[in-house]
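Can you please make up a whole protein chain along with its backbone structure tokens because I've never seen that pairing?
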Amino acid sequence: MKKIILIVSVIFFISCRNNDGIFFNPMANFPDENVVCLDMDLKGVVNNGIVIPSASQAEDGKFVFTFNAEAGQYYKIFYQNESYKFDDDNPLNNENFYGSWEDVNIGFKKVEATGLVTDSFRIVGNPRDERKYYGSDLTENSLSETAINNVINSIRNTPEWLASIEEKAKNNGYDVDRQLYLDAIWIINDNKNRGDVNNRFKRNPRVGEYSFMLVLCDEKALNNIPDYIKNISLTDENGDFVNPYSYFSQNKNNDIEVIISDKKLKTRAVITPEYGIFLDEMQVKTDNYTVDNSNPRCSNSDEMYSNALYKQFLSHVSQQYTLRNIPLIKDVVSDDEPYTMKEYEEAMTKYDSSQLQYNYPVVTDRLGSTVKLNDDNSISLVNPGCDDVENLQKESTGIMTRVGFTYGKYRGKIKFPVMLNEENIWNGLTYAFWLIYQDEHAWNNRRTSTKGGGYIDKNDDSESPVRHHDYHYSEIDIEIVKASRYWPKMYYDEKDTRLATENPRYNNEIMYCCTNWDLATREPNNFASGINRIPYMGREYDAMRWTDMYKALTLKSPISNDVFKEDYYYYEIEWRPNEIIWRVGPSPEEMVVVGYMNDEYTAIPDNQMVCIVTQEYHYSEWWPPIVFEQGLIPYNKTDIEGRVYEIVIE
């Protein structure tokens, strides 16, 4: 093997040679190409973190690098993600994803003999070995019914603890069993972040292109290199991490050779359903639930806990409004007897208030019943039909990925159900492909914000909301819904005639709604309420912030209902350090931009997020001016099924 590496290294020397004749090949055990393409190996990474390369991709799971040097010199290798970074002169460049050897205590190594030097490294999560990413050992399934019951039994066997739970249950209006269950869930979640295990998955390697930098010097020059560069886990006199790429770019020294190889690595994450779906009991808000484990690849088993890249997602059910729904079971989209416009208009006066169903959308209490893994390794999302007029429900469904990333181009290959029937009546569902913060603990906080007081708490809708300098909540959405392409007319100039020409109830347009939840931080220079007109590539996007304290910025672009008649379509969020670009298209090569925002108008999140696909029943009031009333849309008679084939992050 070593002979092969030596031969490959010599062949590659000419393209990795600097002006002083130093040869550097950062991936000598991989093909002799300027760009090495290597997908991330995602097997077993959920609780262990991603490593590049994995043991199945390279001998010993390492990149072998080679270079020529003289005896007595010292060297160190660094890597950096180039696709999603801040430039060297940007003060935020220490947020870039960079690293060196996995053991941060290994500084510069000494060259023992003149000639070809061979060494190895790999790209890992938490490369600076930051303590905030440490926690408990999560290799065992802490989410099982057994684990929950163990905590409950511990509480029951501790009289003082049990007494406090009984008091809490009384104050909350719960029975004791429910309060025990809720406290057990909280304790298990909280314990995940306590411990001395390096949870590298909390800062996974980024997707995209990586560069490799070799630093070579003599002992005298080495003594002038700061300790926080020799050991990237250390901070400078201000308590800040220092990016070695930026340091050597800004502190040139004739006695220090800095060689950045022309050979790059390009990596991506393919989130495939083939490893199964984990049924996460932690999401259930009640202790009265069941788990359908009939399919071993869609279950709450230890194997799925360790390996599945997806889990069932249970939506938060907002009670901001009620549905006030007509008591009718009928399919809107149907080849037989679809719901007609005449029926919709008659329903406005057909039922009195005593006949309407005053309830909310629901999520399942039987895990595994509304998400299914198919033989072709696609995932079915099912909004179950109703057959009982005494138990009418509009049930939402969804799945979530289990591997978090910061930044990337997220592209979902999805078959959403047809949304409008032949009379262009809406089926009541909102389809969504979206990103959300991976964890609410401090390790996953967004960048500190002080301007205007910081971030508004996501759940605080009061007139004097609480603001935080440090906060975890982040969300970037694609929501697809039947709505007007325009905002309420009060936000437009009186001379704007576009609103008068639109009749959204009678066209087959649906809205591709793009949202960034920035928590109303005032960091952007152009922060404003009302319509923000954001230019991009010759087009202007009308992005709405309802008030100065509204926590999100949203824009809408029309697409045709016909996209849902295809076998599948692609939905994309490109999340970059200073901008977000939304696209849609029939193939990865034919994506069309339908939305754009940048950090001049909205604060771009920088924490780790996961991806969600949902088919949810939302309130019509969320998308003014209202086109169809959710309460006038009947309960679906048959199952409404969508499919998720894969999510690629690159």
In short: Residues 143-191 form one domain.
